[in-house]
Structure to design on (64 residues):
């Protein structure tokens, strides 16, 4: 679980990234993932973890 407040998992983030097709800008991809999953909109404590996962997936090193 990456975002406990919104119950968003690694796979939820990966699925949102594959839905959004923006693979060039990590911050824009993060915003797209946020729109789909609402991760990091509760307490915000997972912001860095979500960015790390988005970056990892965009670099092609993710599990998804």
């Amino acid at each position: 679980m990456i975002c406990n407040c919104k119950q968003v998992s690694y796979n939820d983030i990966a699925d949102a990234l594959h839905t959004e097709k923006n693979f060039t800008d990590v911050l824009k991809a993060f915003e797209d993932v946020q729109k789909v999953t609402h991760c990091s909109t509760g307490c915000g404590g997972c912001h860095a973890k979500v960015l790390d996962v988005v970056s990892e997936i965009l670099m092609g090193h993710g599990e998804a």
